[in-house]
Backbone:
């Protein structure tokens, strides 16, 4: 874990971050002025410094320069209540890793600390000044080449695949990327919609400008307008400082709006106006700001269907629908499954410092048979877990969740044999499964279900479990389809 120094004249912020980061295992100290910070750093070192931009005896930029002169490898995160592009440019030019805005979210600070730690490991402990910050403002750096290097690095994390579906997807990206068209990306959860959006941006003429991703599903009605368009100090209760909106930060680049159907009707109206007039107005301000932003949106439901149900404005849908891309689920990209698996394993090796060479054939078989309802996100989590549990230099069945193996095997078995639901004989269990407990549970549930003619309420009563638990177990054991056929 990291040694962290907090510099802020607000003792409440210091104590908040101290308690939170200490619980996460970091060694934390704090001081309340620039002078005390420099005195501390004469005798002690900190790997990461979290520093307020406005201090009683100095400002963050000046203090940052002094810190970097004393300890070049120390990374500095700037806290500012004056969230504007000018501040961002100043602190990043001076060598800050990134900045966060008040009111502080401890989780956001922790995310930046993790990012610093991971990047340090990748670069062998070198200073990260001039590398990619998390808040999407790296294109504002004085070094015009640093952003393109960052983009080249990030596009390596995009896996194309070899299937026909992958080829079609890549050709669509290459076709639309050079244009300024708005794009709708459709796909199930976990299919990599943000990665596709970023790849479009990285392949466009806007690649040297910011790429900003916004999760509309996490925006409340009250916060959405402020987050997207910004606000002025005093615009509403709690608006203690001005805030730059994501559209303004993305100016010249691309904004990606994920889960777009979650935006309220009022915000949809405001968004339509932004698209039509290419201007934004912060909450509480009479001033309009011209913007040039490419918009990419994503949804796991068809927007034209959402308009029919009254959940999405039809005129806004037509504004977005200049080009659309359908991301196939992982279960329809069988040829790409092991390509993605190898990629995620490589990432896990880097993160854990391991050298796992690959997967035994039985694991590959399970991966190819499983339907991956959580798509790439689920696969990534499964492989990270497997890599953590692995005691050998290869991924074995023992490191996989038993439910995944079970579902994959029974899915294959279910396709091979015709099930006579009137028969009292249980389904055959593939001998390779080593979990006797799962076998016994499966057999018992199927036996009871057949006895009550697949009446789930009666079966749950006989099994002494509630109906929801029974349903979940039936889903795990792929018995839902049998019940429907009974």
Residues:
């Amino acid at each position: 874990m990291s040694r962290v120094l907090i510099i802020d004249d607000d003792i409440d912020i210091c104590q908040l971050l101290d308690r939170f980061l200490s619980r996460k295992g970091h060694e934390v100290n704090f001081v309340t002025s620039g002078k005390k910070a420099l005195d501390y750093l004469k005798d002690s070192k900190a790997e990461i410094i979290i520093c307020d931009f406005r201090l009683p005896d100095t400002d963050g930029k000046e203090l940052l320069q002094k810190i970097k002169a004393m300890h070049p490898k120390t990374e500095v995160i700037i806290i500012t209540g004056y969230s504007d592009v000018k501040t961002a440019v100043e602190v990043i030019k001076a060598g800050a890793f990134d900045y966060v805005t008040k009111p502080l979210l401890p989780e956001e600070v922790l995310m930046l600390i993790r990012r610093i730690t991971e990047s340090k490991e990748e670069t062998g402990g070198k200073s990260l000044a001039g590398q990619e910050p998390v808040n999407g403002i790296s294109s504002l750096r004085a070094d015009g080449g640093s952003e393109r290097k960052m983009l080249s690095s990030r596009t390596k994390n995009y896996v194309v695949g070899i299937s026909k579906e992958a080829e079609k997807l890549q050709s669509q990206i290459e076709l639309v990327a050079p244009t300024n068209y708005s794009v709708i990306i459709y796909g199930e959860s976990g299919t990599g919609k943000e990665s596709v959006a970023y790849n479009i941006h990285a392949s466009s003429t806007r690649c040297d400008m910011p790429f900003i991703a916004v999760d509309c599903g996490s925006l409340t009605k009250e916060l959405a307008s402020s987050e997207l368009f910004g606000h002025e100090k005093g615009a509403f209760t709690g608006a203690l400082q001005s805030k730059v909106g994501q559209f303004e930060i993305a100016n010249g680049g691309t904004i990606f709006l994920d889960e777009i159907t979650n935006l309220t009707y009022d915000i949809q109206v405001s968004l339509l106006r932004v698209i039509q007039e290419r201007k934004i107005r912060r909450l509480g301000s009479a001033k309009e700001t011209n913007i040039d932003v490419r918009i990419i949106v994503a949804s796991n439901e068809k927007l034209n269907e959402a308009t029919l149900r009254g959940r999405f404005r039809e005129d806004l849908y037509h504004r977005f629908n200049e080009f659309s891309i359908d991301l196939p689920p992982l279960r329809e990209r069988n040829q790409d499954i092991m390509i993605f698996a190898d990629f995620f394993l490589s990432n896990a090796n880097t993160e854990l410092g391991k050298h796992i060479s690959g997967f035994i054939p039985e694991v590959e078989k399970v991966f190819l048979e499983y339907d991956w309802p959580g798509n790439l996100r689920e696969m990534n989590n499964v492989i990270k877990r497997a890599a953590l549990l692995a005691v050998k230099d290869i991924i074995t069945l023992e490191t996989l969740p038993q439910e995944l193996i079970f579902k994959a095997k029974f899915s294959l078995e279910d396709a091979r044999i015709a099930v006579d639901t009137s028969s009292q004989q249980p389904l055959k269990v593939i001998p390779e499964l080593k979990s006797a407990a799962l076998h016994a549970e499966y057999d018992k549930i199927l036996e009871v279900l057949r006895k009550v003619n697949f009446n789930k309420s009666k079966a749950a009563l006989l099994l002494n479990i509630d109906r929801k638990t029974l349903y979940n177990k039936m889903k795990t054991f792929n018995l839902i389809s049998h019940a429907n056929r009974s």
Summary: The CA atoms of residues 17 and 106 lie 7 Å apart. The chain has 21 helices and 14 strands.
